[in-house]
Design brief:
By secondary structure, the protein is α+β, with helices and mostly antiparallel strands. The chain has helices at about 30-40, 65-70, 95-105, 135-145, 175-180, 200, 235-240, 330-345, 345-350, 375-380, and strands spanning about 1-5, 10-20, 45-55, 55-60, 80-85, 105-115, 125-130, 150-155, 165, 190-195, 210-215, 220-225, 255-260, 265-270, 285-290, 300-310, 315-325, 355-360, 360-365, 390-395. Strands 2-1-5-3-4 form a five-stranded mixed sheet, with helices on both faces. It has a five-stranded mixed sheet with strand order 7-6-10-8-9. A hairpin with a 2-residue loop joins β18 (about 355-360) and β19. The model is unreliable at about 405-410 (pLDDT under 50).
Length: about 425
């Protein structure tokens, strides 16, 4: 007969050898042997179990019975698991050997990857499938040495290996429920990200990714903001101020723009509710920028006109769009000078630019020697597609090409 000792303090099983016993021996007669093998003083109260199979233990209740009548289908190689009977057993995570074996049966290896790190290999934890959200969060936080309430978890998308929907901190299911769509031999994975505020506070907030553009029209960084769900654009701007640094000689005023396909779609007013602001990945970007000093005040005979870059086809837009202030009946040559100053482009390169007014997908190029004047009424009017007229700068895109695929997408390899 083989013996195993369980220690609830360390959640570990130790092999304590074997011995030959008579089937007529009473259970209490082997207690001295178990105390000796387990390193306990003689007379220590012990709890005994029969290991029926790897995930099933049956407690031995009556120590006065003989082994033949106590153990089910007694044969060579039977295993008895024992532990010390402590009064404070309930303070341990797995107080009894039976709890330990049940926990062991439900153990599973899960890989946790940081969703904000490209191709993060992550780290692996062995967890119980019966764990709830709070227990999983504490286990991951202990590994990362952080606050469990400043972690947010995400399911894996079923059709590709990338972050999917966030898991609410009020999730009532178990870890097994979260991993139910993984195949049996498929590696189990969950994504996470670090938060600056508590996860339970996020439930009353809405996440927005905002791109901040500096006064040189360079995209500085992407801000992840968490304004209240029932807030407005002004709340978004106020929170963003805490994370950006404005130019020393600037206006100090901020505005929020909707960008679609590298073109400015609209300037959002501060009283617009955030619930009305729908963003979908890849189609619309929310941009935050400091208002240039010359645009901080707009007169009745002035208007802000969107300007965008394109090459040959007006649909082939690229780069960072911007706004330029135009005055009624202003010579277009003056507008061109302000655009050049805003872009800080050398004369030699700027001479290659062509200018067009784009409306409803049709580009009307502004060419010829005759002086052109701008009629701001045309730029103020909305066109049927919901946008406004915009000035297009037709020139070659010298920026390095970026892949049209997201970095989280992986190539498919075909082996012949």
């Amino acid at each position: 007969m083989f013996f195993k000792r369980y220690d609830p303090r360390t959640k570990s099983i130790s092999f304590c050898g074997h011995t030959y016993l008579s089937i007529s021996q009473k259970v209490y007669q082997i207690l001295p042997i178990l105390c000796e093998r387990g390193g306990f003083p003689q007379g220590t109260d012990l709890i005994l179990y029969e290991e029926v199979k790897p995930n099933l233990l049956e407690r031995i209740e009556d120590y006065s019975n003989c082994l033949e009548n106590t153990l089910d289908e007694l044969m060579d190689g039977d295993i008895i698991v024992f532990q010390k009977d402590d009064p404070d057993l309930e303070t341990y995570e797995c107080p009894t050997a039976k709890d330990y074996f049940r926990d062991l049966y439900y153990r599973i290896e899960v890989t946790f990857c940081d969703k904000n790190l490209v191709n993060d290999v992550g780290f692996m934890l062995e967890l119980s499938q019966k764990m709830n959200y709070d227990q999983v969060a504490h286990a991951v936080a202990q590994h990362l040495n952080t606050d469990p309430y400043q972690l947010q978890f995400f399911k894996v998308q079923g059709y590709r290996d990338c972050p999917g929907n966030p898991i609410r901190c009020t999730y009532e299911g178990t870890l097994k429920d979260l991993l139910i769509y993984f195949k049996s031999k498929q590696p189990k994975k969950i994504y996470y990200q670090h938060l600056k505020i508590r996860i339970d506070e996020i439930e009353n907030k809405k996440q927005f990714k905002v791109c901040f553009v500096n006064d040189q029209l360079r995209e500085e960084n992407e801000l992840v903001l968490y304004p209240n769900k029932n807030g407005c654009i002004e709340d978004l701007v106020n929170e963003a101020r805490q994370h950006i640094e404005l130019s020393k000689n600037g206006s100090g005023k901020l505005r929020v723009l909707e960008i679609i396909s590298y073109k400015i779609y609209s300037i959002l007013k501060f009283d617009v509710l955030l619930d009305c602001l729908h963003t979908s990945p890849g189609s619309k970007t929310i941009r935050l920028e400091e208002i240039p000093c010359e645009q901080s005040e707009i007169g009745s005979n002035e208007v802000l006109v969107p300007v965008a870059h394109f090459h040959k086809e007006q649909y082939s837009t690229f780069g960072v769009p911007f706004l330029i202030k135009v005055t009624e009946n202003e010579p277009f040559v003056e507008v061109k000078k302000r655009i050049q100053k805003r872009l800080d482009v050398p004369d030699k390169e700027y001479d290659k630019f062509r200018f067009a007014v784009v409306s409803m997908g049709i580009a009307t190029y502004l060419e010829g020697e005759e002086p052109l004047v701008t009629e701001i009424s045309k730029f103020k009017a909305r066109v049927p597609d919901g946008g406004r007229l915009w000035i297009g700068l037709d020139h070659i895109n010298k920026a390095p090409k970026r892949t049209r695929y997201a970095y989280t997408e992986k190539a498919i390899k075909i082996h012949n």
